[in-house]
Design goal:
By secondary structure, the chain is of the alpha/beta class. It folds into two domains: 1-102 and 259-362, 3-Layer(aba) Sandwich (Isopropylmalate Dehydrogenase); 117-256, Isopropylmalate Dehydrogenase (3-Layer(aba) Sandwich), CATH 3.40.718.10. The chain is built from eleven helices and twelve strands. The chain has helices at residues 16-34, 47-53, 59-67, 91-99, 158-177, 195-208, 221-230, 242-256, 293-309, 313-332, 346-361, and strands at 4-10, 37-42, 70-73, 103-109, 125-131, 144-145, 150-151, 184-189, 215-220, 237-240, 263-267, 272-276. It has a ten-stranded mixed beta sheet, sandwiched between helices. A two-stranded antiparallel ribbon has the order 6-7. The two termini are 20 Å apart. The relative contact order is 0.15. Keywords: Amino-acid biosynthesis, Branched-chain amino acid biosynthesis, Leucine biosynthesis, Magnesium, Manganese, Metal-binding, NAD, Oxidoreductase.
Length: 362
């Protein structure tokens, strides 16, 4: 590999810059050792930028991100910095909507040797796909608030749902081919109560009929939440609406041991953003205590996506190598940060990943 990939970087707020810096360093090391180059362009956005300028996501930052090969974004926002209507600064959601990043990909897995929080928990490896541009979030900034009532509107469209389900079945096929799942896609909805979700399920069933080699089934969201805790091995690829996905993805993070291990991607037809699921943790910002693993795992997802998009299987392999290095560290129980029960600092946890990478290439 000799190609240069241009990566738009949003450093974020709070602990965002602290977990981004070691991630970029690891990516540069991988590039040097595997013969590819990553050109990073840091772009302004976030709650801190809004507090200084009145802009959360400048138009120039959006356009620069749009033409990049991929977008790496750290945690953004600050509960103390809000819009006049009382809502928080969320440039990450603005990016999803502006770029049509409809597929929110949230892997849920345990590292080999890692003890999960559930007493009866066995091996864990499934993916939750959250539609990320509409659903209840379509009402963002448009809700109606009166003296005695408030309204938000849920929107589900055929055009976006069809793309979402095609993505889900493609992912299930990839996982099946790699031996990571049975090729099952589960539609998570509330079709027994809401007409919008019956519509959602109907579109899912239409796509499922095009994949007779894969398994398709359904789960109501409340049952899905129960089964994620009691029978997580029954899932392979789950696909759901935006708000349901927002909630269930945090439950998935809990199954892994916390948000500090939860990476994510928001993927559209042309662009993709990769970011940790956790927040900005202003209470520990600047103290060097943040867990960098979710950010590093998000970067591994970026390498995997770039490799698939550009037909560069070697890049996919590098992403897998980075993911294994994090799993080695977490599974060993060494160099764990405070959220995982350890005492390691951010730089120590990241250095342990670098050591695991070096050991694998010896």
């Amino acid at each position: 590999m000799s190609e240069t990939y241009h990566i738009a970087v949003f450093e974020g707020d709070g602990i965002g810059p602290e977990v981004m810096a070691p991630t970029l360093d690891l990516l540069q090391r991988l590039g040097r050792s595997h013969g590819f180059a990553l050109a990073f362009e840091t772009l302004p956005a976030g709650a801190g930028h809004y507090a200084q300028t009145g802009e959360a996501l400048p138009a120039a930052s959006l356009e620069a991100a749009r033409v990049a090969d991929a977008i790496l974004l750290s945690a953004m926002g600050d509960p103390a910095v809000r819009y006049p209507d009382g809502t928080e600064i969320t440039p990450q959601i603005d990016l999803r909507i502006a770029m049509g990043l409809y597929a929110g990909v949230r892997p849920v897995m345990l590292a080999p040797g890692q003890a999960g929080p559930l007493r009866r928990q066995g091996p864990l490896d499934f993916v939750l796909i959250r539609e990320s541009t509409e659903g209840l979030f379509a009402s963002l900034g448009k809700g109606e608030v009166e003296a005695d009532a408030a309204r938000e509107t849920l929107v589900i469209t055929r055009a976006v749902s069809e793309k979402l389900f095609r993505f889900a079945f493609r992912l299930a096929a990839r996982r099946k081919a790699a031996g990571r799942g049975p090729g099952r896609v589960t539609c998570v909805d509330k079709a027994n109560v809401f007409r919008a979700f019956a519509f959602f399920r109907e579109i899912f069933d239409g796509e499922a009929a095009r994949h007779p080699d894969l398994i398709a089934d359904h789960a109501y969201v409340d049952a899905a939440a129960l089964w994620m805790v009691t029978q997580p091995q029954r899932f392979d690829v789950m696909v759901t609406e935006n708000m349901f996905g927002d909630i269930l993805s945090d439950l998935g993070a809990g199954l892994m041991g916390g948000l500090g291990l939860a990476p994510s991607a928001d993927i559209g037809d042309e662009n993709a953003v990769f970011q940790p699921c956790h927040g900005t943790a202003p209470d520990i910002a600047g103290k060097g205590l943040a867990n960098p693993h979710a950010m590093i795992l998000s970067a591994a997802m970026m390498l995997d996506w770039l490799g698939e998009e550009r037909g560069a299987p070697a890049l996919v392999a590098v992403g897998e190598q980075l993911r294994r290095a994090v799993q080695t560290v977490v599974g060993s129980g060494q160099a764990l940060t405070g959220d995982l029960g350890g005492s390691a600092r951010t730089d120590e946890a990241a250095a342990a990943v670098a050591d695991a990478l070096a050991a694998e290439t010896v």
